[in-house]
Amino acid sequence: MVKFGSFDSICQTAALVVCPLIGSDQGIEPSCYSRNVEISGTLIFQPSTCFIHIVAIIMTAIMIFHIRSKYTAVGRKEIIMFFYLYAIIELLAIFLDSGIIPTSNVSYPWFAAVYTGLVAAAYCCLLINGFVGFQFAEDGTPLSLWFLRLSCLAVFGVSLFIAIATFKNIAGFNFAKPLALWIIYILWPLICTVIYIVSQLVLVFRTLDDRWPIGDIVFGTAFFTIAQVILFAFSVTICDAIKHYIDGLFFFTLCMLLSVMMVYKYWDSITREDLEFSVGSKATVWEVKDPLLAGGDEYVEDNGSNYNGAPASLVGGVSGKQLYNAPPLTGVVGRNGYPTGERY
Sorted alphabetically, which PANTHER family does this protein's record hold (predicted)? Predict the structure, then answer.
């Protein structure tokens, strides 16, 4: 059972990044975890979870590409920061979950602290994005963007300090009683997620005529809830049932990816690009119809040129004055219709 301020039951159930660094000098070891594989003499832990991390990075790159293509959508610059943070978190998780950076290495606490700070900053970014649609500050402006950036930076810095101070037993923090770390690692994400969900439901009911985005919110909430339940309640059961091939961390990572994808799907469904000012990747075909240029019902497109094949500019050749004002040159006419300069 999860106790407030304690990682004991949590780490005994799930192999979290911070578990080897808290509780005791040796950390807290999970009761069951997935098997490792050996690649070129290197043991890779959580191989199935690492595969989901790689898939998450690829999917995030696709989502970022589509967000960047919606040039005039509301909150585009704000929401894209959340996906950048999520991609960095997944990249760092590959090295921490897999054991590429060993827990015994002196750099592991620092990477774990950075990971903790990035997770807290990502949830802060999601929380602030929940209020972008209310237009307290116009989206895309320096005020909106710098408020988001500085808020995430502040949360990252505080979380980083708390994490590394807890791991190193400095500044009054203790890895045996990691209350502050528990708040930023377990409680803070739940608070941010709940506020974001409530704010988006209020936004949909108050400002939108379309109710379909509620389905995206429901699915995203369901995936997030399932991820927490599987990780903290059924991880050991799953691990034992599948004979250590995968554990709850695999399904947690997968469900979190699906919930992040629903965040994108929801944002995409409530934003409509202003086509009048958008810039697409496809060439725009402009059709000009002027009744003065043609008679009757048919309009004739004039593709002719007054220069009869002459180039628009003559770089390295004769100038315009020489071409049009010079006396005619009697000589041999070349293949392109111009005098070659040779006399008869």
Answer: CHITIN SYNTHASE EXPORT CHAPERONE
Work out the end-to-end distance of the chain between its first and last CA atoms, rounded to an integer number of angstroms: 105
Within 10 A of 19 (CB to CB), how many other CB atoms are there? 21
Measured distance CA(142)–CA(73) in Å, rounded: 16
Q: Give 267's contacts (C-beta < 8 A, 6+ positions apart).
A: 67, 75, 79
User: What would the mean pLDDT of 127-156 be, rounded to a whole number?
Assistant: 90
CATH superfamily, domain at 7-273: Rhodopsin 7-helix transmembrane proteins (1.20.1070.10)
Radius of gyration of the chain (CA): 31
Q: How far apart, in whole angstroms, are the C-alpha atoms of residue 190 and residue 228? A: 10
pTM of the model: 0.77
Q: What is the pLDDT of residues 86-125, one digit of tens each?
A: 999 999 999 998 888 888 899 999 999 999 999 999 999 9
User: CA 182, CA 248: separation in Å to the nearest integer?
Assistant: 20
Full DSSP string of 283-342? PPPP----TTTS-SS--------TTTT--S--TTS--HHHHHHSPPP-S-B-TTSSB-S-
